[in-house]
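job 3f2a | input accepted
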Amino acid sequence: MTLLVGKRTGSNLVDLNRIGKTTKWLDISSSVSDSQGGTVERAEAVFYADSDGNWHMRFNISTAFASASVSAVTFTFSDLVFRSGTNHRQAVSGAMDANSEGTKAYANPGASTISVERATSAASTTWTTISGDVELDAEPTVFTIDANMESGDVQASIKNADDSNPGLLSYQNQVSVDLAADPNSGSFTGGVLKLVRIDKAVILSGESKLTHGSAGSVSSLAGLVPADFRPTSNTTDDAWNEFYRDASGSCGISVKSDGQLLVEYYNDSGAVSRTDTVKAPTMVYTVP
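job 3f2a | predicted structure (288 res):
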């Protein structure tokens, strides 16, 4: 099954496997021309989709042409359109070889053109270059996107996210909790928890097993789990999962409404003492 995510409106769904990845630097010279009929000396671009399903192009393009008195140059792209919307011009960098000071460049909304305009009067010009990162109106069709995707590690970016750096999925909440360093770790001594919230669903997963002193029940202090990832109550069904079982017993994990993390070990006779969770914990639960 392919997991899709999108804007809250449900539009622009994008394959989750593409998020956090980009295409290779691709040669798009056959898809670019300028209004001076110049020769494309360099035209490379990277395409990627953000967490809301919007497609972007990061590019660097240079053209050269016979010397001419020029005040503006228009670049035209086949097979792609820049994001539409009233006055939704996207600024990019642009330069010409003479009197480039104050030159402005922008992608035209709902069109396939980028305008480069000299701030001063027309001057003799032999080259123009543009570069930037712009939002597209839809997935580009000039290339087979999936075939040109670079490998990427979405989980690595989620792991490194924190409250000030929400990571790849900007419309979601994501956090990484290091139990060896967090002041609210309580009885836990090691392990990293990753929490990803998608609307009202929270995915909790461990980077590795969690460690602690020998005990049958281990808990953190209140506040370890941030408020956005806490269930509404402390009933077992709200945020609890038995994620491991072997011949000696089982291991369950739960999150409490005050942000406390609890791990319990047990078998048919009662509590069983362990010093770690044996494997990385996992759980999916819902929040308000």
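job 3f2a | The domain at 4-148 is CATH 2.60.90 (Adenovirus Type 5 Fiber Protein (Receptor Binding Domain)).
job 3f2a | closed
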